[in-house]
């Protein structure tokens, strides 16, 4: 049977091996020219039986609630003797004037959906419906993993999806997924090494404006259930300052908005002297992480959002909305600090 075809240079196609039974198969390629000549070549391939891994992704790769990048000192090293940036006061004036921009933690939209790949790969997806262009990095287009049937990206305009395959996470921006788990459309596809520093590959188009992994700093339901987070967080603000990104970010995209101080990768910290003893959970756990590890600016957003995993495992006590309001944290005691050096 015909598995695939290509009518444009460089005349290459990817084969979805999930359409083949396990065992040996003879694959024949045929080339036709305008005169009707036909050229053929044949190879034999062996398809292994693949069992989809649909186990929920781990909270941490080392069991210590250090997040998805446990070897990234930028995310797992506690803040010690920080230098408060000279523009911290200017940012806090904007933050307070905007009533802290409705502080919340994403739960069911505007975060990122996370699954394991099935073991099969398909061709690079087409642009999103209604869009003609994509962001492509210098590494070019790559094969992308299939995901379990029924997978959906996070709700909201970004449509973010993260797919773990071994120690690599494939990150999809504006994902569309078919019923059989094929990622058919995307604005960009980025890759990150889970043993790395929390960045996506600089040779791929970033999955977000900062070039940080979508999983770097993300809060999971399991972490809040354990009342323990041992890594820095990630957040959005309305508006991004123009200029260079700040490590660990490697990309910065200017957006006009109330924030005119922070560029991507800027780091904030809740003052260690802030009294959070009276906070209820999960606010106390989030606040403690902000005191101990701080948080990095990852993207522009309509509100001040701490990024949480898009999941159906959030407790009913958090409500059924897209996000959890976290206004009880003493945001007036935040400061902007110098982050780590590369």
Any overview of this molecule?
The chain has four helices and 17 strands. With 342 residues, the chain is mainly β. It is elongated, with a radius of gyration of 22 Å. The chain is 9% helix and 23% strand. It has a seven-stranded mixed sheet. Strands 4-7-8-11 form a four-stranded mixed sheet, with no helix packed on it. About 4% of the residues have low confidence.
The residue ranges in which pLDDT falls below 50 over 5 or more consecutive positions are 49-62
Arrangement of strands in the largest sheet: 16-3-15-12-14-13-17
Whole-Å distance between the termini? 52 Å
Give the overall form: elongated
Note the beta-strand portion: 15-25%
Summarize the biggest pleated sheet. 7 strands, mixed
Average pLDDT over all residues: 90
Helix content: under 10%
Rg, nearest Å: 22 Å
DSSP summary: helix tally: 4
Task: Output the helix-strand order.
Answer: EEHHEEEEEEEEEHEEHEEEE
Structural class, from helix and strand content? mainly beta
By DSSP, the count of extended strands is: 17
